[in-house]
Amino acid sequence: MDNKRRKFLKIAGASVLAGIGAPAVIKLTAATPALASGHGEAPAHAPAPDAHGGHAEEAPQGVRLGMVIDLRKMNENPEMLDSAIAACIAAHNIPEFPDKKNEVKWIWKAPFENVFTDHSASHSAAKVKNFPSVALCNHCDDPPCVRACPTQATYRLEKNGIVAMDFHRCIGCRFCMAACPYGARSFNWQDPRPYIKKYNKEFPSRMKGVVEKCNFCGERLALGQEPACVEACKGTGAIVFGDLNDAKSEIRAVLDKEFTIQRKPTLGTKPSVFYIV
Amino acid sequence: MIEKTLKGKPAYWIWLAFLGMFMAIGAACYVRQYNFGLGMTGMSRDVSWGIYISQFTFLVGVAAGGVMLVLPYYIHNYKEFGRITILGEFLAIGAIVMCLLFIMADLGQPMRALNVVLHPTPNSMLFYDAIVLNGYLFLNVLCGWVILTAEKKQVKPPKWIYFFVYLSIPFAISIHTVTAMLYCGLPGRHFWLSAIIAPRFLASAFAAGPALIVVACLVLKRVAGFDAGRKAMNKLITIIIYAALLNMFFVGLEFFVGYYSNIPGHKHSLEYLFFGLEHHGHVYNNLVPFMWAFVILAFGSIAVLATPAAKKNDFVLGMGCAALFLAFWLDKGIGFVLAGFVPNGLHEITEYIPTANELGITIGVWATGFMVVTLLYKIAIGVEHEVEG
What we know:
The complex is a heterodimer.
Chain A: H1 2-17, H2 22-29, H3 34-37, E1 65-70, H4 71-76, H5 78-92, E2 107-110, H6 112-115, H7 126-130, E3 133-136, H8 144-148, E4 154-156, E5 163-165, H9 175-179, E6 186-187, E7 211-212, H10 218-222, H11 228-232, E8 239-243, H12 250-257, E9 273-276
Parallel strand pairs in A: 1-9
Antiparallel strand pairs in A: 1-8, 2-3, 4-5, 6-7
Helix pairs in contact in A: 1-2
Chain B: H1 10-36, H2 51-65, H3 67-75, H4 85-106, H5 115-118, H6 125-153, H7 161-184, H8 197-223, H9 230-261, H10 264-274, E1 277-279, E2 282-284, H11 288-306, H12 308-312, H13 314-339, H14 356-388
């Protein structure tokens, strides 16, 4: 299974590199016409969109990369999450400031009640209370940060649903930070470079005065690699990554089988990160 | 007309030197911030907007408040405001200059500010804010200058200018509405996610702006021999009282919605502002004194302004208006923006305390605004004296 996923990502990534663009990716990821025929039309029993717009079935369009994080597996092996975070830091030249004020983080640990503020924390199970959850950018299908950005320095990639950043266009107004309901965005309050422990030449470091966040490892996908955090949890199934719109994908198999939750679904942002608790 | 700024009594020059000193301090602090980054401020990942954006928000209101003079004079032909309407327009210019400076001070990459124009983004409220703020600045410069020039020449203003005067009225409403929309359209920030933000902003603006104009008129009466007229002052008092009461009413409605619905998200920020927010055994309350000062000053000043003494005694009137201005500055220039970040999206609490460098820049920008207003008022009053003289 793991090998197969790797292969698909390789093809998908290569096609992105070669600049074939969105149509090719759709074709490759939906190897069978399932995407067009099976899932394209809303099933007859589809629920009507509710008042909050958060719980209804979403109409799939193109590729939408997403993630399922299995907190059960994360908790079985606490070091795994640490290594996933470390892999992200190493891959993206994330500075490690000693103080909370300057903190820059793309994927991080936080208590369940902080990650899932809409879920009751009273009488929660011990596994929920005693083990950290994990937070990162949700790569929302309808991202408030993109709506707020006055320069399109943050934007949603139509070809794969990734919410990306242009560090060279960002003016540092931090409107996106106010807009993000998930606290996924960090600002470079000062020059981050002296605080990068080990410099990775494959990825740009940032300058002071710009916002940054998780990019679902767009640069690694383009090389046919999995996201750094996914790779760090390899073989455990703790993080499953793939196309949410591809009915045949592994991530869809997991979503079909397991009960999953999203962060703050009532806000209508349509997060692409799902959790198994 | 600019030459009028070059002649003045010693007190005028001392005042300009005083403001210039703070502008220099602000500039020096800004150089430090520019070189190091916004880490020089007290802002953090959790409280990502601080005193700069708070001041910006409040000053947009001061700028919009000028319309409370323009509207009665030009639409309702309320002649008593004839002498002071120009003061409202010139105050708006100073306030918008401060707004733009505060935005620039807040940008992480100020050299890229033009990206807002180069990559226009109609889905962003900041895009519209840039349009209406600059538009309102332009309109006030144009209208103020053309009408003052006509007055100097003792001719009627050209007819075409009235188009821009009338246009400036919806623009005044729009600058504060769009500024409210920066906040009230964000999902996940419960305190800001309220349809009453724009009306509340306008109400507080229509009290704070005219209150500052009253104070300015009283100062000008003493130092420049400019009398705005008792009737105009009394009418302004009425406008200020009604607008201030509306603002307090709207604040009260926020309390009702939060506490009667009992939805925690709607209460947290209010709790943080007024009572202190308990979280993991620690009470976070660094804004509580400011907010109670706001409530006491607001009701106190409304009461003072409503007494007959305010209509007779300049000192009582001046103190009442100054207190009201301060009250609404505490409400909108401190509380409103900061409380939106407490608690943050993960229900964590980080408090914000501005740094000395940040306060230096803030005072520098205020001094710049006062300098602009002083110079413009010097011109306006110089012309009035010349015409009457």
